[in-house]
Design brief:
alpha/beta; globular; single chain; FAD/NAD(P)-binding domain; 2 domains; 6-stranded antiparallel β-sheet
């Protein structure tokens, strides 16, 4: 086994939204940081392409991306931004399917990110105190606010200051306009439902790709490079975290070179795991030693448990009395869409189900060529995303029999929507339909809007997949190494330090105690920023 002779102050595992930000924060503090990415450089994959022939080749001929191709962005970006399913297997029970959508390249899943960035509120962070389900986050909205604001300024997030307590306002660079059809929808829903605000979306105004400001490659990682303190190593698959003999301190990681298959140890007094939720759990559970026989962070018995995802239900419709002329269609971006924040179980009447849901969508922004359409009516969709509760038996384990191309144990994911989760999801779909109908909308099968039967059949199949998403498909998986105030019921403390190994930080989605209804990426980044501040301050005290 080759031993690295380089000296690092910190190792960051993963180069996506959280890994890129951790690298930036730590290098800005003067630390020498080694950033490890399991895949190759995003430059190796070329620019974003909509070459359907390439996707069809990957799916039908090679059959190497049978899971990945189920995600909608697979068909609108580049298939190389998604993993090879055969090289990167995982297992599930036969009766509990889970779609693990992954990207292994510099930038991770930020290359396929939509850039929707709502903040969480204390309605989500302190939900357990209100309904007794699960545990509270050990952090408040006020504590996250300065971190949210700094990230919003850096990424140039757009949005309106709506003054909604369930959706805290951000530090926005401006407000994007609604389309004519969206304004009509907003006015009609407002008349019918006074408690359901239709607002302009909060997010980034950018298209996907390695050079987009959606991507960590061109934002946080690029800025970290400029400090002269960052070293990036691609094709570096982390097998395990190394610890001291007594198991109380992380001292680095073991990596496998993705091309040569050789092992190597790299060392640093500080380790950040930002590999994405399930991959981070796989690394922690695979980090077994005499001091940690079940893996790092397993002493509480909750490592790998309480995995969550959003139930996504997408409904398409037209507004027949709002025709869409050629040239009317506008871009759909994280900032250029509409959002209906959670309005259930706040401070008023309580619903028959706990927690709640929100919606995101657009009207008059669908990228469907006018020549292929059967209608001139404005086409829109709403995607309801509902919170799921933390259930102990929704979990990740290591499979004893299945291994990936590099010999590492595959993840075994056991996950299903529970009755309460389905109650919330059914209410979300029912309310979505009620609002569409109140706005004089007509529900449609998307495939029926096409002149070309082949195109209609394809989009119809995708619509069925998203009518109620299979667990994992929405790419909002979180939990498994949750934060908390009590080491008996959580894996991490309030600053994302592993209770068992306090110089090991976990700041990706694995740290979430609950999932809320909001898109998780901005909150992951805010949590990462806060944890980095703690790590930097601790390092200064040791100097």
């Amino acid at each position: 086994m080759a031993l690295s002779t380089a000296t690092w102050d910190a190792i960051v595992v993963g180069s996506g939204a959280t890994g890129g930000l951790a690298a930036l924060k730590l290098t800005n503090a003067g630390m020498r940081v080694l950033l490890l990415e399991a895949g190759g450089s995003s430059d190796d994959h070329g620019s974003v392409t909509r070459n359907i022939a390439t996707q069809l080749y990957r799916h039908w001929i090679t059959k190497r991306q049978r899971v990945q191709q189920l995600h909608a962005t697979y068909w609108t970006t580049n298939p190389s931004f998604f993993v090879d399913d055969r090289d990167n297997p995982y297992t599930t029970p036969d009766d509990k399917p889970f779609r693990w959508i992954r990207g292994r390249q510099l930038g991770g899943r930020t290359l396929t990110w939509d850039g929707v960035t709502p903040r969480m509120s204390d309605y989500e962070l302190k939900a357990a105190s209100r309904d007794g389900l699960g545990i509270d986050w050990p952090v408040t909205e006020a504590e996250l606010a300065p971190h949210y604001a700094a990230i919003e300024r850096m990424l140039e997030v757009y949005g309106a200051r709506d003054g909604l307590p369930q959706l805290p306002d951000g530090d926005f660079v401006g407000e994007r306009p609604m389309t004519r059809a969206e304004s009509v929808f907003k006015e009609r829903v407002g008349r019918a439902f006074g408690d359901r605000p239709v607002i302009i979306s909060r997010g980034l105004r950018a298209a996907r790709g390695p050079r987009s400001k959606l991507s960590s490659v061109s934002t946080t990682i690029e800025r970290a490079r400029r400090t002269g303190k960052l070293t990036v190593r691609t094709n570096a698959i982390v097998a395990r975290v190394l610890t001291s003999e007594d198991g109380t301190r992380a001292r680095g990681v073991t990596i496998i070179d993705g091309e040569t298959f050789r092992d190597e140890d790299v060392h640093a007094p500080l380790v950040f795991l930002c590999a994405s939720t399930i991959e981070t759990l796989r690394i922690m559970m695979g980090s077994k030693s005499r001091a940690h026989p079940e893996g790092i962070g397993a002493s509480s018995g909750v490592l790998g448990r309480y995995l969550m995802d959003h139930v996504a239900s997408t409904i398409y419709f037209t507004l027949p009395d709002v025709p869409e002329a050629r040239g009317d269609t506008l871009d759909q971006r994280g900032s250029d869409a509409i959002m209906i924040p959670r309005y259930q179980n706040l401070d008023g009447a309580r619903e028959a189900y706990p927690r709640g849901f929100g919606m995101w969508g657009s009207i008059q922004r669908m990228p469907l060529p006018h020549a292929l359409r059967k209608t001139r009516a404005s086409i829109g969709f709403l995607c309801a995303r509902s919170e799921t509760l933390p259930h102990a038996d929704n979990r990740v384990e290591l499979d004893r029999d299945a291994r990936d191309r590099w010999g590492l144990p595959a993840a075994r994911i056991t996950f299903e929507w529970k009755p309460t989760d389905l109650d919330i999801a059914r209410a979300a779909r029912r309310d979505t339909i009620d609002m569409i109908e109140a706005a004089k909308g007509k529900l449609v099968e998307l495939g029926d809007l096409f002149h070309m039967p082949i195109a209609g059949k394809f989009v119809g199949k995708m619509q069925q997949e998203w009518a109620r998403s299979t667990p994992g498909l929405f790419c909002h998986e979180v939990g498994g190494a949750r934060m908390g105030d009590d080491p008996r019921t959580s894996v991490l403390d309030a600053h994302n330090r592993c209770w068992d190994v306090p110089n090991l930080f976990v700041t990706d989605g694995a740290c979430f105690p609950s999932c809320g209804w909001q898109n998780p990426t901005l909150t992951m980044m805010a949590i990462t920023s806060r944890a980095c501040d703690q790590a930097i301050e601790s390092s200064k005290r040791l100097e």
